[in-house]
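Quick look at the format.
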Amino acid sequence: METQIIKSLQDIPHSEGKYLPEEQVKAVTEIHKALRSFPSDQLLQALYFMWDAAERGQLQMFLIGDTAKQVKANEDLEGDEITVGVRRNEWDSGQGRIAQTFMEHELGVKAVEVDGKVTYEYKGIPIIIKLYEENPTLQSFDIVYYGYETFNLPNPYKTFVEEYE
């Protein structure tokens, strides 16, 4: 029997020997995301944990991806991860080292950067930290009130999403 590595859902043959149509791939992906979704209060706890780590290190953490969209719209968090950004120069400095040391102590794992991202797991919830080089949208942040804290968003947010996300 030949062993085959499947790299994506598109590579899975269906019953007629053809590959899954794009619509089915999208549907299966959405179902997978829904199954991996965490309750809003658990996602909020993970976001507060990351906020705490950033504050301890005085990092100018900012929200990105679905996390930013939901916080900006003042919606309950949903999904399967928390996504934040940090300037690379801050992450590589003493500021970043303080935040990393706190997270390593609390979570019991060391940070490993892969492709410009660092991933931690807080009570089963992935926290994705994407490292960004300096750019104009990170020079001064928009502040958003959410839950009991304030969070940073790139400014202007729309430009950041179009050019850097």
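Next, a different chain entirely:
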Amino acid sequence: MNITSLLSTKYQTIECSYERTTLDPLTKVRNEKMYTYKVLLVIDVKVGDALIVNPPGGYKIVIVTAVHDQPRINPDARYEYKWIVGKIDDTAYKIRVANEETVKRMVELREHQKKVQAHIDAVGLSAEDVELFKSLLEG
């Protein structure tokens, strides 16, 4: 049944689990069923990577739990080993989220600085007073 997988050599196999796993209520152990997929050697895959696969029912995300040096194909398996569809590259997403967080922190800092200046202005402190107080407080 797996003749094409046994004849081809330009791939490796990986072990993965679907992104969502359930916790057994009695043992508190994850019920992770592992699945083996084929990956072309030109795709750099490591443990922890998120991949797209196409099982019955449509595309799903799996997380790589093991990368095999050599393909691990059971010639007697009653199913065909499937290929991954692709690797999820979330680099641009992570950069975008990090940049948003940086901007949020910068805006919060400016808002804080405005509030401090409003208090200074309300009390009527001069720039010299502020510097003197800072030097006294900061040692």
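The first strand starts at residue 11 and ends at 18.

See the schema section for token definitions.
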